[in-house]
Amino acid sequence: MYSDGDERVPLHLVPYVKEEAQASSLREFRTKNELAVDLVDKALEHVRPRVVVFDSWYGSQDMMKHISSRELKFVTESKSNQLLDDNGRKQVHTYLGRHRNELVEVDTGTKYRFAYEFVSEIKGGLAVKFVFLKQCLGDKALVLMTNALDASVQDVVKNYKRRWDIEIYCRDCKQCLGMGKYQVRSIDVGVGQSGLCSPKRHCQQSYFSAHLPRRQ
After folding, report:
1. Cα separation of 199 and 11, whole Å?
2. Which uninterrupted H or E stretch holds 185?
3. What is the DSSP-derived secondary structure letter of residue 125?
4. Which residue has the higher pLDDT, 145 or 193?
5. Which end of the chain is more exposed for a tag (fewer CB within 10 A), N or C?
């Protein structure tokens, strides 16, 4: 999904099929992160994004190092067991527990009012900035990661918010195109059906943009 902040354009849609289900198909099994890396490369054939945004499911070392190797910036949510280097390897939630009194009030333009940032190497040697966010000091923290070490807290939060465009697209595919109700007997048919959702949804979105007044 490519977004410039106003328009959303689906580029590729590849379904993940569990390894045991692949036994009935001639398709090679690919993990979610392997598929995600491939999708990044396919997207770069058409667009050059300012930042790549993805959720913690795809926050593997391979994914982050691959994006960095393509000279791109990324923002993602950190897993709670992510290891960082603070005079020895520590998990993110352990580190935050020791620095919970160092969060300061920041205007992020969102419901998160308190933040703390810290640059560290993670496993694999990649340097990232961690941004810890809380609505109230006693709340559980949202932890974001980025390889844009000089990015402000506000920029990191603003970029991560754009991940919501993916959720909207998936919702629309289910509600408008019936994607959530497909019943097929063949994996290959299911892959073909899901692949049709992307161009169909894009055509639908283009029609609405051209014929309906833009919401102010």
Report:
1. 9
2. none
3. S
4. 145
5. C
